[in-house]
Amino acid sequence: MINLNNYIASNEDLKTIEQGIELVWNPKLNFIFKDKAKIKNVAIISYDSKYIYLFQDRRLTKIPHRLRIKRDLHSWWRAGLLPESIEKYLPARMRGKSRFEFPIISGGLLTPFVELQKQKNQPRNPYVTRESYLATIIHEFGHVYYSNSGAKYWFSNKEENLGYLKTAIDLYNNKLVDLSNFKISIPGYQSLSELFAFCTDYTASAIFLPNHKRDIDVYNRKILSKLRGQEKHRNFNFQNSVMDDPHNFAFVAGKIILAKYPNTWPQKIIELGIFYI
Predict the structure, then answer these.
(1) Residue 49, class by beta-carbon neighbours within 10 Å (0-12 exposed, 13-18 middle, 19+ buried)?
(2) What are the CA-CA distances from residue 6 to residues 75, 214, 225 (Å)?
(3) Could you tell me the sign of the dihedral formed by the alpha carbons of 264, 151, 216, 242, in that order?
(4) 83 alpha-carbon distance from chain centroid
């Protein structure tokens, strides 16, 4: 069993992250990551017991730390900084920025990720292989690309938010405000970001990672059959749909939208998430 208190990244751990980044930039995924400027400055961060590994601009920076990182944070990734305590060790240009100002993808290294996923003893868990780890990195790039495409699921731009608040205050104070060119961006559903990310890693898996795609198919068939049984017995006066969970929604809608729009789904999903009034 791996001891995370003294684990140091292997060459394979670091090379696998580099491969995940390379797959994102592979021309076969250009129809998804059409505008590379939206992911050009993404920082990819991982960590072990002594070092933070910062991948950016095809370079690796190794930063010593003195943190005790929680065990479960080695078993998943997110579009954002995980854990937040890492921020104080990062270069000054990255500190104090939102994930939209300076996008970050972070998570555990390959070896602890796979071992901790196996320890979950989850039947048909599709995240216990190197391929699944690569797909996870690609998935998080999907979240970043979606968020940087004008589609957002929360009020993420502080400057814009302060402008909305000032305008509302002025109106409440009966001030004359010119609204002829004023726009307010309304966040869409988080489910759409999850949908885009799922379609990204599922498509990449179909091209590069066939064993992971097979594992996802097996797992999702089982999960969706179980969810369908649950949905039959839900009382919508008191309970929400099983598809109100963003990941469940992505498993359902993702497979459908990929079948209906195999080459144009990226723009279809982004357009669904852009709301202005």
Answers:
(1) middle
(2) 16, 34, 42
(3) negative
(4) 15
Distance from C-alpha of 270 to C-alpha of 179, rounded to nearest angstrom: 26
Q: Is the dihedral of CA 26, 131, 133, 5 positive or negative?
A: negative
The more confident residue out of 54 and 98 is 54
Cβ contacts of 99 within 8 Å, gap of 6 or more: 79, 80, 81, 147, 156
Whether the predicted model's global pTM rises above the 0.90 cut: yes
Q: How deeply is 194 buried, as exposed, middle or buried, from its count of CB atoms within 10 A (0-12, 13-18, 19+)? A: buried
The mean pLDDT value for 191-218 works out to 98
pLDDT in tens, 12-49: 999 999 999 999 999 999 999 999 999 999 999 999 99
Instruction: Please give, one letter per residue, the 3-state secondary structure of the chain.
Output: CCCCCCCCCCHHHHHHHHHHHHHHCCHHHCCCCCCHHHCCCCEEEEECCCEEEEEECCEEEEEECCCCCCHHHHCCEEECCCCHHHHHHCCHHHCCCCCCCCCEEEECCHHHHHHHHHHCCCCCCCCCCHHHHHHHHHHHHHHHHHHCCCCCCCCCCHHHHHHHHHHHHHHHCCCCCCCCCCCCECCCCHHHHHHHHHHHHHHHHHHHCHHHHHHHHHHHHHHHHHHHHHHHCCCCCCCCCHHHCHHHHHHHHHHHHHHHCCCCHHHHHHHHCCCEC
CA distance 154 to 187: 5
